[in-house]
Design brief:
Blueprint (H helix, E strand, L loop, with lengths): L6 E5 L13 E5 L2 H11 L3 E3 L4 H15 L9 E4 L1 H18 L12 E3 L2 H8 L11
Parallel strand pairs: 1-2, 3-4, 4-5
């Protein structure tokens, strides 16, 4: 709406996938791993809206790259939709962290859950420039 540049990195699927109406430039990938590589390389912020297994896969992949310091922890990860993401956060906190000790408490701070795209935008607009993103 503000005439910004929006680039779509889509995946070729038989159905489901469509280009967002705000996307000005788009490319579609045949393989998920190529798309995920480009997402991890090209973004200065990650904003995830409710979705299916592919969305969860990409969100956890990005969080893992940040957790393992393969990409900078300065890249914001924003999960939009508290109703959708809060049960996942609860599971990560109560089971994965507290019960199984499979992650550190700091890992639960790698993302921020918000309710609206406007809240996500406030976080994204303060994201650092692309320099220093990769170790």
């Amino acid at each position: 709406e503000a005439n910004g540049e929006s680039i779509g990195l889509n995946i070729q699927l038989p159905s489901e996938q469509r280009i967002n109406p705000y996307v000005k430039k788009s490319t579609a990938f045949h393989y998920f791993f190529v798309r995920k590589l480009m997402l991890s390389y090209a973004s200065r912020a990650y904003v995830f809206f409710p979705g299916g297994l592919g969305t969860l896969d990409e969100a956890f992949e990005i969080l893992t790259l940040i957790q393992t310091k393969k990409v900078s922890d300065k890249i914001p990860v924003v999960l939009v939709g508290k109703e959708f993401w809060s049960p996942i956060h609860k599971w990560l906190h109560e089971d994965i962290f507290q019960k199984y000790r499979a992650i550190d408490e700091e890992d639960l701070k790698l993302y921020t859950i918000v309710d609206t795209a406007e809240e996500a935008f406030e976080i994204v607009k303060n994201a650092p420039p692309r320099e220093d993103f990769f170790y």
